[in-house]
Amino acid sequence: MKLNFKQRLFFYFTVIFTLSIIGVTIFERNKEKVQKTETLEGILDVYTTTISSFLSKNPTDNFSNLDSLVSLFPSELRVSIIDKEGIVNYDNTIKNINILSNHAQRPEILALKTSNKGTDIRNSASKNQAYLYYAKDNGINFIRVALPYNINTKNLLKPDNSFVYFILIIYLSVLFLINSIINKFGKSVTQLRDFAIHAKVIPSENNFSDNELDEIGKKLTENYLLLEKSKNEVNAEKEKLLQHIHNSKEGICFFTPQKEVEFYNGHFIQYLHLITDSDEGNPNVIFTDKAFEKLHLFLKNSTSNFLDDKISKQGKIFHLRLVFFENKGFEIILNDITLQEKTRVLKQEMTGNIAHELRTPVTGIRGYLETILTQKLEIDKQLYFTEKAFLQTKVLSELIQDMSLIAKIEEAGYTFTMQAIHLKPFLEQIKEDYTLQFTEKRVQFTINIPEECTIIGNQNLLHSVFRNLIDNALRYAGNDTNITIYLYNQDADFCYFSFYDTGKGIEDEKHLSRIFERFYRVNEGRTRDMGGSGLGLSIVKNAIQIHGGTIYAKNRKEGGLEFLFHLKRA
Ligand code: ADP
To answer: Is the C-beta atom of 532 inside 6 A of ligand 1?
Structure first.
């Protein structure tokens, strides 16, 4: 049976107190018994002393005159005179003393060898009765007196019971007191225990009084509430962090200092799978797979807290970062940076290309102006070079315009406002703008689009699209050709168009997929001479994509280049 705190406290107190009371009682009773025995021995000593002085005054051989003295003593008193050899020479209770055995070995007689008195309580061999013996040595004989150890003597030696009753009353009163004190403390302790066990039912401050135990309880409750609050806050923060890590595009895994996995997100396993070909889903594979050799070396002899590495696998580039925490645990972050890397390379190429594209017209302008300035030229020659320089500035400004348009489409495509555009009148207007060029080159431009065809688009962007396509057709298809745009299909969402010319198209078809790249030219020298910036089709493709469409180029079997693209219906 399990005792509660209160019962246990009561039990311990009672045991300790009972033992103390028993100890005190035994001690007290023994002391009393010793005192009473000493008193009795004192009385017996008076008898032996009287006998001794009688004998010294009335020396005799057979002690016959002793009877007169003994008769004055209490009748139950037994008097024995024993000589130094242990032979009993006188005993007032035995007629024939010759039958008595030698008394040299009696405990009270033996005691006289070391002490001036000897006592013993035992059964008498001759009288078959218990006696309290008291013996003294008078120099010649041992004088022994004895009282029957009967109820009277016993009672005389028995300690007084009033002390026991007194102790008993104290005992019971103290037990009662202990019980009430324990009850008081027990209440607080039970309350604390319930609080500690359930830790839910929080005792209110009023439940505690102001003893020290209750103060502890109060403090504990306060601290517990504070702890609960902090725990909840930490949990909420942790939850947010875990949510963030789960939704992160980066693969993240936390390890203990012993390289045990603590936590990881889905992307980490996914990237690990891509890099290692291991489908176990165990992040520890990172410590064994060869692709992470640099990481293994770093973990063996790491001198810094940070590792940065790039891993190329399956046509993808991953960025690996390892960061040590203070407790020597660490996190490993994997990130797919293929796109960023490609963009970075593209941007690098782009910067090179722009510099290259700008250099040509600028060098031209500088050359023409230098010629005019340094050489004495006829007025018509001067005019000729000035015109050349002017044409190059036009190329330059077109290039700058194209570049800024591409940058705007790519970086702020969402700023172009869309509206419903009736495509036929829109194209008719453009056609009118080109009347001079078409006439000069004897080019026929046919618009084969139903009147009601309406698409969603941005006026300026669509202007750029069609102007670039027409410019290219005029430039590369040549004189005496036809340009046509027609609606070849439409569905619930899109209108599908074909724009083609009847020129030569692009002879080597490998160029077809690349003509939409920035600064890509099929014939570098020739097209540059024709005034192309190399950005026209790149603008067209980007603009169509902003409209939610796509564009492809193909050679027509009848000759000429054809562009197929679609735009959203209004
Ligand atoms: P560019 O400014 O050089 O014209 P584009 O991006 O507009 O640059 O065109 C890329 C290349 O595609 C051109 O250099 C040209 O060789 C080829 N091209 C474009 N349109 C036509 C066309 N209608 N016929 C033949 N080749 C064309």
So the answer is: yes
2 phi, psi to nearest 5 deg: -90, 125
Q: Is 277 left (phi over 0), alpha (psi -120 to 50) or beta?
A: left
Question: Could you give the CA distance from residue 146 to residue 187 in angstroms, rounded to a whole number?
Answer: 63
Low-confidence spans in the chain with pLDDT less than 70: 1, 61, 151, 153, 156-159, 195-213, 524-531
Q: What is the reported pLDDT for 548?
A: 92
Cα(483)–Cα(474) distance, rounded to whole angstroms? 9
Phi, psi (deg, nearest 5) at residue 561: -105, 135
Residue among 472, 474, 518 to mutate when testing ligand 1 (max atoms within 8 A of CB): 472
What is the structure's pLDDT at 531?
67
User: What is the per-residue pLDDT for 175?
Assistant: 84
Please state the pTM of the whole predicted model: 0.52
In angstroms, the CA 479 to CA 488 distance is: 26
Kindly give the number of the ligand 1 atom that is closest to the alpha carbon of 477. Answer: 24
CB 485 within 8 A of CB 449: yes
pLDDT of 63: 80
Per-residue pLDDT of 413-465, as tens digits, reads 889 999 999 999 999 999 999 999 999 999 999 999 999 999 999 999 999 99
Closest CA relative to residue 77, chosen from 134, 25, 24, 157: 134
Classify strands 444-448 and 482-490 as parallel, antiparallel or unpaired.
parallel
472 CA → ligand 1 middle, Å: 6
CA separation, residue 71 to residues 51, 64, 65, 135 (Å): 12, 12, 11, 19
Q: Measured in angstroms, how far is the CA atom of residue 502 from the centroid of ligand 1?
A: 14
- The span from the CA of 423 to the CA of 420, in Å, is 9
* pLDDT on residue 458: 95
- d(C-alpha 184, C-alpha 219), whole Å: 19
Pairing of strands 330-336, 251-255: antiparallel
| 515 CA from centroid of ligand 1 (Å) | 7
DSSP H helices, 375-490, are 379-412, 423-433, 435-441, 459-472
For ligand 1, whether the C-beta of 476 sits within 6 Å is yes
β-pairing verdict for 306-313 and 316-324: antiparallel
Residues 6+ apart with CB under 8 A from 309: 294, 295, 319, 320, 321
Is the Cβ atom of 506 under 6 angstroms away from ligand 1? Answer: yes
Write out the H or E segment, with its range, that includes residue 252. strand 251-255
Give me the pLDDT at residue 145, please.
Answer: 94
Q: Which among 157, 100, 159, 142 is positioned nearest to 134, based on CA atoms?
A: 142
Q: How far is CA 212 from the centre of its chain?
A: 36
> Does 473 sit in the ligand 1 pocket, CB within 6 Å?
yes
Please give the pLDDT value at position 178: 83
**Is there an atom of ligand 1 within 6 Å of 545 CB?**
no
Helices (H), 199-278: 212-247, 266-276
The residues, ordered by sequence, that sit 6+ positions from 352 with a Cβ below 8 Å of its Cβ are none
Buried b (16+ CB within 10 A) or exposed e, 504-530: ebbeeeeebeebbebbbbbeeeebbee
